[in-house]
Every structure is written in C-alpha cells, then in structure tokens.
Amino acid sequence: MQNSKCGCTAGSKAETSKAETSFHPADFSALKFENGLIPAIVQDADSKEVLMFAFMNEEALKLTLDTKIAHYWSRSRQSLWKKGETSGHFQRVEQIYFDCDADALLLTVKQTGGACHNGYKSCFYRTIDGAVVGEKVFDEKDVY
Amino acid sequence: MQNSKCGCTAGSKAETSKAETSFHPADFSALKFENGLIPAIVQDADSKEVLMFAFMNEEALKLTLDTKIAHYWSRSRQSLWKKGETSGHFQRVEQIYFDCDADALLLTVKQTGGACHNGYKSCFYRTIDGAVVGEKVFDEKDVY
C-alpha cells in the first residue's frame, strides 16, 4: 500500500458469500502487477505468523487459485516456483486477500514443515539487531 | 524471499540479548535495498493481523529505528512518509525482523486507529473473490 487514496477496483462484492465455495475470482485483471509481478505476503493460517515474502506473476496466481497450493515467481531463477517442490514443504492456501490499492496480496496457508530454506518455520527469524528468535523446525541439510 | 539459498549476512549475533534495550542495529548495510527500497510488511503486534504493505528507503528505516514510529517511502508521492502524519493513525514499532535473504522487513506495531485509508483496520480487507471481510474502525471522511 502506498499513501494514495485506495482504488478498490478489484473483485466483485456480488460474490461476498462465495469465499469458501468459489475460491477463484471472477476477474483479477484489476490487480496491479508491476513489471508482471505482484508482492505476496504469506501468513500461517493458524498461528498468524508471517512466514515469508515472495512475488507472483499471473500464471503463479492462477495456478495457486486452481490447485490451492502456493506457486510463486522466482526472480532469482526467473521461473515459476511451486513452493515445496524440492523440500516437500508445500503451502496449502486457505485464503487470498488483496489490499486497498490492489497491488499486494496476502495468503493465509497451512505450511508443511517450514517456510524457510534455513530450517526455520518463518523466513523472518531474526530481529533487526541480529537476534535469532525464530523456531527451527527442520535441518535444512536433510532437505536440500 | 526468493527460492535461493539464504544469505544470512545482516545483523550480528553478538547482540542477541539487546533486542529490547538496543533497538538500533549496529549495521544494516547488509540489508538488500532494491533501487533504494526494501519491502516492509506491517503486522499488528497483538492480534497478528497483517495491516499493510509498504516500502522503506534507508532514511525511512533510520527514522523508524530512531523514533520507533513507522516511516515509509511513498512511491506514489516520491517522498518520505511518516505514517499517521495526516490521520493521526501512527504506528508505534515494537520490533523489526528481516528475512533470510535480507531483502524484506517485517514490522510489528501498535496501530492507532486503522492502517487503511478506507477506514479499515487492515488494508487487506477483501478476499480475492471480492468479499469484504475486514473490520471498519473509522470513517475515512472524518480523517482525510
């Protein structure tokens, strides 16, 4: 979100009661992809812990909506990225939200294992002054 | 976070016990700013609700660390943005985390009023299929 008035153009209020049964939006063309990408914040559906931050392109979002398994766009590899493909640590998506400016997404997920390559539940396992505060949930050497 | 091995270069483990007393990091030069900006996820410190998504430049991060009031960089206005300057809806920062790749921040905050210009507690008040599910906490016409 930026400090501008909100656009509030994406989605359709007519579908308010279908969140559970109809996961796929009628139209997400109103979402603002910047250079083909939209930021995605990923939050544990139960603990509410923020797990990671990534980007999606339209294909990743479509695949996520169709399969309910989180897909992203890897900017470092420049390729579609099914989270958990290597590690088995998939993310089952419970819900997707978009923000007032329609330029950021929030996914709530059921995370298998941990979200972080370093073996932590969340990628945000360190405070700004260097304290390691996150929960280590697997040994990354066994997985990657 | 991207699907690469994590850098884990920012911060200093020597300071692990100073999170509460010494909020300012010894060095955040290891943080990866892209075109001068780093994404910042903002989460309510109590409810764990994700409130908004914004960007910081180095100055915004320094001001946030120094004042414990969240500052961002408004890309739309191309200027420093002290959140709440117009609305009074400031964010008192409790903690700042950085992710494994050191290219994203997570702030936990005490939010005065609501984070969203549209009067909602969180900017993520709609699901992808258009359902409005967020909590309206103020009338934006009274504030802006």
Describe the structure.
Two copies of one chain form a homodimer. In chain A, strand 1 and strand 2 (50-56) form a beta hairpin. In chain A, the strands form two sheets. A four-stranded mixed sheet of chain A has the order 2-1-6-5, with helices on one face. A two-stranded antiparallel ribbon of chain A has the order 3-4. The first copy, chain A, has two helices and seven strands. With 144 residues, the first copy, chain A, is mainly β. In chain A, 10% of the residues lie in helices and 27% in strands. The first copy, chain A, starts with 37 loop residues before the first strand and ends with a helix. Chain A has helices at residues 58-67, 140-143; strands spanning 38-44, 50-56, 71-74, 79-82, 91-98, 105-111, 126-127. Chain A is globular. Chain A has a single domain (36-143), classed as Ubiquitin-like (UB roll) (Roll). Strand 7 (126-127) of chain A pairs antiparallel with strand 5 (91-98) of chain B.
Present the secondary structure layout:
Two copies of one chain form a homodimer.
Chain A: E1 38-44, E2 50-56, H1 58-67, E3 71-74, E4 79-82, E5 91-98, E6 105-111, E7 126-127, H2 140-143
Parallel strand pairs in A: 1-6
Antiparallel strand pairs in A: 1-2, 3-4, 5-6
In this structure, how is the largest beta sheet of chain A organized? Answer: 4 strands, mixed
Which assembly state applies to the chains in this document? homodimer
Task: Give the strand order, joined by hyphens, for the main sheet of chain A.
Answer: 2-1-6-5
CATH topology of chain A: Ubiquitin-like (UB roll)
